[in-house]
Amino acid sequence: MAIEGNSYSNLLLLMKNQGYNKDIKIIIAKIKNLSPLSIDMGKYTVDEEDLFITDRITTLNTSETIPEDKKLQVGDAVIVLVDEHDFYILDRVVNL
Asked: Which of 26, 33, 51, 69 makes a 20 to 30 Å CA pair with 45?
């Protein structure tokens, strides 16, 4: 079966096909620090050694063609997938 769509629709399809997994959560966190990277999850802070980031976030912050005001900043909200002790930053949340 071919999977079509962007990475977010693929993630939703994967979760739908695999069923509910109470060990995996998707939350919104705030960037606490950029170097070293850390996020504020309300009750606690997650440091760089427990964080994984998508290539999109890496590209967003390292590209010289992207204006500084569009890069990830301290205080930005991010979508985080939590799997036991691993935290995956998927993307930045923006207000429309």
From this structure: 69
Q: Return the bridge partners of 38, or none.
A: 33, 47
Q: What global pTM score does this model have?
A: 0.74
With residues binned 3-state (H G I as helix, E B as strand, rest as coil), the percentages for the chain, rounded to 5, are 25, 35, 35
Question: Is the alpha carbon torsion for 57, 59, 60, 62 positive or negative?
Answer: positive
Q: Locate tokens 């691993």: which residue? A: 86
Q: What φ, ψ does residue 12 adopt, rounded to 5°?
A: -65, -40
Q: Which residues contact 40 (CB under 8 A, 6 or more apart)?
A: 29, 30, 31, 32
The tens digit of pLDDT for each residue in 14-69 reads 666 666 666 778 889 999 999 899 999 999 999 999 998 888 888 777 878 888 87
Q: Supply φ then ψ for residue 66, to 5 degrees.
A: -95, 130
